[in-house]
Design brief:
With about 240 residues, this protein is α/β, with parallel strands linked by helices. The protein has two domains: about 5-160, MoaB/Mog-like domain (Molybdenum Cofactor Biosythetic Enzyme, Chain A); about 165-240, Alpha-Beta Plaits (2-Layer Sandwich), CATH 3.30.70. It contains nine helices and twelve strands. The strands form three sheets. A six-stranded mixed β-sheet has the order 2-1-3-8-7-6, with helices on both faces. Strands 10-11-9-12 form a four-stranded antiparallel β-sheet, covered by helices on one side. A hairpin with a 2-residue loop joins strand 7 (about 135) and strand 8 (about 140-145). Helix 3 (about 45-60) packs across helix 4 (about 80-85) and helix 8 crosses helix 9 (about 220-230). The two termini are about 25 Å apart.
């Protein structure tokens, strides 16, 4: 199965000034595609740190995504860090300059040119409607930190990423975890490949625990769902989705 990691870059994330929503978005979207997001790492705007973490994740996972640090200001160091990770020079990409000129009503200035400085040999993926492309260096896909742009750009290239998607069934249960723990343990003993999640809820009126059952094998999931439905105490299931 394909694996992935996300490298979130930005002092603003670590200081709490900006809330990271790209991690949640990417986790959901990759799961739909059947790609396992196995690691999320958040680091400051430091070139050496970006380089070290990029290289390590690139070697460990099939796909790496970065979020943040590709703007025109002094703390936008992602491209420099990725270039150092793969021992590449930073060069001006003329195609990006040309796109800037087509999309901007003003002449290209130094700040805009900084955004067109990318690692030598990087792949540049067009994203329709946006002047700034997705830059890919080996298996590292460079995304902006702004959630609206991150999401739009990911959707524009999502077909590049594929795996075997998960199938999901949810049980909404009126009993507490302690009351159904034995049933859940027995279910996992019978279905060891099942991904079973149990999430207590405090403020819900209709149920106390949300159970999630997941598998890439729909038939296997179906058997596990049927077993759980028959082994939970009578009357505790609020609903199944």
């Amino acid at each position: 199965m394909s694996t992935a990691a996300l490298l979130v870059i930005g002092n603003e994330i670590l200081s709490g000034k900006v809330r990271d929503t790209n991690s949640t978005f990417l986790a959901v979207e990759l799961r739909k595609l059947g790609v396992d997001l196995e690691r999320i790492v958040t680091i400051p705007d430091v070139i050496e740190t970006i380089a070290r973490e990029t290289r390590a994740l690139s070697e460990a996972f099939d796909y790496v995504f970065t979020s943040g640090g590709i703007g025109p200001t002094h703390d936008d160091l992602t491209m420099d860090g990725i270039a150092r990770a793969f021992e590449r020079e930073i060069v001006l990409n003329q195609a990006m300059i040309d796109r800037m000129q087509r999309y901007s009503e003003k002449p290209v200035n130094d700040a805009m040119r900084k955004m067109a400085m990318i690692p030598d040999g990087a792949e540049v993926l067009d994203v329709g409607g946006l002047w700034f492309p997705v830059v890919v260096v080996e298996n590292v896909h460079v995304f902006p930190g702004i959630p609206e742009l991150f999401e739009k750009k990911f959707h524009s290239i999502r077909d590049r990423f594929s795996g075997v998607p998960f199938h999901l069934t949810k049980f909404y249960v009126r009993e507490s975890e302690s009351e159904i723990a034995d049933v859940l343990n027995a279910l996992l003993a019978e279905f060891p490949e099942l991904m079973l999640g149990s999430y207590p809820k405090i403020n819900e009126v209709d149920y106390r625990v949300l159970l999630t059952l997941e598998s890439r094998d729909m038939a296997y999931l179906g058997r596990a769902v049927e077993r759980l439905a028959h082994t939970l105490p009578q009357g505790v299931i609020q609903r199944i989705e």
